[in-house]
Write a structure and sequence with these properties.
The protein has 296 residues and is mostly helical. The chain has one domain. Helices cover 71% and strands 0% of the residues. It contains eleven helices and no strands. Helix 1 packs parallel to helix 8 and helix 4 runs antiparallel to helix 11. It is globular and about 60 Å long.
Length: 296
């Protein structure tokens, strides 16, 4: 198995030092986003600044270590992997929210959300079905444009730089676990000190659930990266996840008193579903000889 980019450029003995440099720079660049989001609020532009801290750390590390930026996986790869990346969040999102709705832990269609979306999009006189269909197109397709721009900042760091570097030294599951844990830890300040959570209660439990989500997604994204050789698969999946799982499915759900304990990235259902998906992609990676570490 050949490496993804950095393998041909960076001597193996420089891998761990490069990761250490990346982590230090990541913390430094993230401080700006943390300060803005924690002291002022979760404004879109401040979140975008935070989301680009991993990408900036990757760029700076490449410059310091003499790694070409082309090694970050810019090529598109086979389109089928991008289609898979777009569709997977819809699939596991429908499974997770289907369980939530089916068990009566949350309602399927929130009329307030439909009315709000209809008013926001200027859909006067449209039926609920027409509003939902149009909202999916606007938020899940057109909205992907700016979501991809923000998600790319993260994924250049997590999947463009960190994952290939770790795969030089560690196996598929260890690499996916480490990246997922780093990804979760990077979110921790805004989970604990902003409204980026399901409410100010049981934050340690919410953090645990969110960590399972990021680790599960990391397994899926590592597999897609190894198959496509492209950072765009993770970027598209990340953006699609935010569009469908976080926004569309989450917002259209009717919240009951205890829905927050089960719904979304901070509830218990989505993490359980993603754990199953992660095991499947780990199985696929092992079966297809992608378990690593990557060969010289």
């Amino acid at each position: 198995m050949s490496a993804i980019g950095q393998n041909e450029i960076l001597p193996k003995e420089k891998v761990l030092p490069s990761i250490a440099i990346f982590m230090v720079l990541l913390a430094a660049f993230a401080m700006v986003g943390y300060y803005l989001t924690i002291t002022i609020g979760l404004r879109r532009h401040y979140m975008a600044a935070l989301m680009w801290s991993p990408g900036l750390a990757a760029f700076a590390t490449c410059k310091i270590q003499g790694i070409g930026l082309q090694s970050l996986g810019w090529k598109w790869g086979e389109s089928r992997w991008q289609y898979a990346a777009y569709g997977l969040p819809i699939l596991y999102g429908l499974v997770a929210y289907g369980i939530l709705w089916g068990l009566g832990l949350g309602g399927a269609i929130n009329s307030k959300y439909i009315n709000g979306v209809g008013e926001f999009l200027g859909l006067v006189g449209w039926s609920d079905t027409q509003v939902i269909a149009f909202a999916v197109v606007m938020f899940g397709v057109v909205g992907m444009i700016w979501r991809i721009g923000a998600a790319l900042g993260e994924e250049l760091g997590w999947r463009g730089f960190l994952t290939p570097q770790l795969m030089r030294v560690f196996s598929f599951p260890v690499t996916s676990l480490i990246v997922g844990l780093v990804w979760a830890a990077w979110h921790a300040p805004i989970i604990y000190w902003t409204d980026y959570n399901a409410g100010p209660y049981n934050l340690h439990v919410q953090m645990l659930n969110f960590t399972i989500v990021t680790v599960g997604l990391s397994f899926i994204m590592t597999y897609l990266l190894l198959k496509s050789g492209s950072v765009w698969t993770a970027t598209v999946l990340h953006a699609s996840h935010n569009a469908y799982v976080v926004s569309l499915f989450g917002e259209m759900t009717i919240k009951y008193e205890n829905t927050r304990f089960f719904m979304g990235e901070f509830g218990v259902i989505l993490p359980a579903v993603l754990a199953v998906f992660a095991c499947y992609f780990w199985y696929r990676a092992n079966k297809e000889g992608l378990n690593g570490p990557l060969n010289q």
